[in-house]
Structure formats: structure tokens, C-alpha cells
Amino acid sequence: MSPSGSVAVATDSGVERAREKARRGRIPLSLKLAYSAFMAVLVPVYLFHYGPTNFLYFCDIALILTLVGLWMESALLVSVCAVGILAPQLLWNVDFLVQATGHPLTGMTAYMFNAQTSPFLRGLSLFHGWLPFLLVYLVWRLGYDRRAWGAWSALAVVVLCVCFFLMPPPRPDPGLTPVNINYVWGMSDHAAQTFMPAWAWFAGLAVGIPALICWPTHRLLIRLMPEAPARSPITSLSASPAGSGPR
């Protein structure tokens, strides 16, 4: 390699390092610490009261991915969470407010008003209210990674299959046991829906979540948010060198 070529490579490498350094530190340390403290409480409490299967809920998966994305400042991870749960979590907020007035909408937040569940546990579940706004802020700071829709869609289908084929269906008195996780049997934890065959409901979720919920969110985020840098701290695999309602 000629001297000029070596200088060019060194210059490009230096520029790339400078850009990577500039991309770092965009999320305040105080926010990272506060979120980590919340997760340090929520995770062991949920494991004790609900068990590990509770973390199959999409919202709980997003909680964990957001924690990793915060510390890595990964546009891809926070974008995956945003495209996957912004719409459902906004529906949760609407349902919660309507349920509080005594007029149930979908029933998805009925557990928040169950007096048999401790106020502390229900208080932890209020993360549904602020998580979507946190994700909007994170995507605004880090940029929206357009790979997010495909990544979340693949993840969602796999998780739905696990919930439908391996996890408990609705039951009359589920208590704190996670059943009907991600509503794969209908909107109620106490009985399966009867509007259509179970396989049709499941197929509708597997197709409808990516196509009817996440795709419009994906397009909206592309339109409203800055695009993520070409290189994100988490790269795609192809680029690698080698009863209870949602808690």
C-alpha cells in the first residue's frame, strides 16, 4: 500500500472513531440509572409473584430490550421496542382511563383495578403508562432504525407461537398465574373467545400484529423521527463477522 493510501485509511478510521464517539452519550446517565433502578425492583418482584413466563408479554420483552438499548445507546433496540409496542401501549393507556371511569373498553387493564392484587404490584404495572413516551424520546435521540419492523415482526411471531402452543390458556380463576399471554386465546384471561376457531384467532394475531399494528407505526416513525446512523451499536446478524393481563 502506498503512503497516501495508508494516510487515507488512517484518516477514514479516525473519522469513523470520531463519529462513533459523537454518537455516544446522547442519553443522560441519570435516565439510565433511574431506569436501571426501576428494573432492579420490577424483575425480582415479577419473578417472585408471577414467575418467568410473565416476561413473554410483549411489553415485558420491551422493558428488557429497552434496558439494554439504553446502556448501549442502540438505535436498533429502542426502535424495535418502539415499533412493537407504541400502539398497544397507547391503547392500554386509553383502556386504563376508560376503565377508571367504570366503563370497560377492552378489559385489558381490568387487573389494574383488582383489589385482590396488592397496590404495589399494580403500581409497578404503571410502566405501561410512561414506557411509550420514553421510547419516543429515545428514538428521537438515537434515530429510528428501519430494520426494526422486520426484527420485531419475526420476534412477535415466535413469541406468539410459544404462548399459543406452550403456555396456559384462559381459566376461570387464574390468580397471579400468567395465562392467555399476549391474548392468543382472546381478550379475556377467564375464557377463550368464541367468535371464531382458535386457530383463526391465532393466525389473525400472527398476521395482524406485524401488518396492521406495527407497519403503520413503522411508517409513522420513518416520517417523524430522524433516521438512525448507518452503523448502530447492535448490527444485524447478516452483517456479523461470525391471568392476569400484561404486568
Automatic annotation (TrEMBL):
* Residues passing through the membrane, by range: 29-49, 55-72, 120-140, 149-167, 198-215
Record's protein name: Uncharacterized protein
Q: Which UniProt keywords apply?
A: Membrane, Transmembrane, Transmembrane helix
